[in-house]
Amino acid sequence: MRMMMPLNDSSDSLLDFLERSPTPWHATANMAERLETAGFRRLEEMRSWQLSPGDRIYVTRNDSSLIACRLPESPLTALRLVGAHTDSPGLRLKPNPEQTSAGWLQLGVEVYGGALLAPWFDRDLALAGRVHMRKPSGEIASVLLDTRRPVAIIPSLAIHLDREVNNGRAINPQTQMAPVFMQYGQEGDFERLLKGWIEEQHAIKDATPLSFELALYDTQPPARVGVAGELIASARLDNLLSCFIGLEALLASDRSQGALLVANDHEEVGSASAGGAQGPFLSDVLRRINAQVGESGEEGFVRLIQSSRLISCDNAHALHPNFTDKHDAQHGPAINGGPVIKVNANQRYATTSATAAMFSELCREADVPVQRFVTRADMACGSTIGPITAAELGVPTLDVGIPQWGMHSIRETAGSQDAEQLIRVLTLFFNRARLD
């Protein structure tokens, strides 16, 4: 039997990051904490920036999108950019979530993104997200909340009451997916619980919740799976896995070149937001950086962008042993087979032959295998922040990803070796002097 290589420290760090990041706001806060520990300085968009060669800086928007940048000691003429996204499909609470049925207080939910709904049934669900409140002093503030323990469940209907369920049954998220939350609960109980969680987690007594963005998540922790630990199973691998990989590579880079990580929110719902890839966040930050440490003016900015390269990282569909017919016969990426170049003739991915050649050469230099994915010609293809960012900025871009199973499920599966391989390649990319 072929045994896998021993797992390294980054695998433990990955599992910890996944468990502590149940929402985009938590993921962004965790990345910011890691950056500050490594010596990066936080900038505020409302304030004036003072930048110098060699600076290490980061900035967030809406507390759910993040950009981190290492500036070179030499004049800034090009950037090596890696992009990912912080959000994942799932269930979000409605603004007035309380509803009652058969003696139970339930929570009204919306489906965020293209979630695979069936796996959400019979899971131990916690609540996490962001709450805006008024303190007793009158100050308006926001806090992150995470119940950590399961507080809700969406129970399945017994097969005895639906004998055709295994023959394929449509799921109605409005009428069939309201989580059970509290027996004999009354109107106002949810706000009372919110106030209690705020006091418990932030020592703020008698706060008045004003609004919130809260999501349900599965409390089952990430785990290594397989006899030899070949797999990692977790929620939100798409796309926190890429956020972790990009951050690890940025922190491991040698500071010789201009290097930037962008982690956008809202990719799963189209990216059209202030912090999404279709919004101005990345352009705003790049223009401010270029104005201070690059070649000033519009022409200087265009020269910077055209001299730079973006690697958009978002997971790829691995060849599924039970559904091999769902892949093109020549393009079925293997778990633990190395990073995947994603190609689509209709620009659902931004890869060109030039950017693919650059990445292939990086993999060769890093001694990492490289794979390619193309969707079957008779199937629709998903997309990423890659084409959107390329269209917004004009930066030469390619799409790559780690192969995984169960994309958009409440629990997804990837290889335990692939993350480390892509970290090596992206670290080399961040350090590379030439980008052609």
Sequence-ordered SSE layout with sheet pairings:
Blueprint (H helix, E strand, L loop, with lengths): L8 H11 L4 H14 L3 E2 L13 E6 L3 E6 L9 E6 L4 E12 L2 E9 L12 E10 L5 E7 L33 E4 L5 H14 L5 E11 L4 E3 L5 E4 L2 H16 L6 E6 L16 H13 L3 H11 L1 E5 L2 E2 L22 E3 L10 H14 L4 E3 L11 H9 L3 E5 L1 E3 L6 E4 L2 H14 L5
Parallel strand pairs: 1-2, 4-13, 4-14, 14-18, 15-19, 16-17
Antiparallel strand pairs: 2-3, 3-13, 5-6, 6-9, 7-8, 7-10, 11-12, 12-20, 16-18, 19-20
How would you portray this structure in words?
By secondary structure, the protein is an alpha/beta fold. It folds into two domains: 9-88 and 235-431, Aminopeptidase (3-Layer(aba) Sandwich), CATH 3.40.630.10; 91-218, Aminopeptidase i, Domain 2 (Roll). Helices cover 27% and strands 25% of the residues. The chain is built from nine helices and 20 strands. A nine-stranded mixed sheet has the order 1-2-3-13-4-14-18-16-17, sandwiched between helices. Helix 1 crosses helix 4 (237-252), helix 5 packs across helix 6 and helix 7 crosses helix 9. The radius of gyration is 22 Å and the shape is globular. The two termini are 42 Å apart. 43% of the residues are buried.
Beta-strand percentage? 25-35%
Indicate the CATH architecture of the largest domain. Answer: 3-Layer(aba) Sandwich
> What is the subunit arrangement here?
single chain
User: Which consecutive residue ranges, at least 5 long each, have pLDDT under 50?
Assistant: 1-7
Query: What is the end-to-end distance?
Result: 42 Å
CATH topology of the largest domain: Aminopeptidase
Looking at this structure, what is the CATH superfamily of the largest domain?
A: Zn peptidases
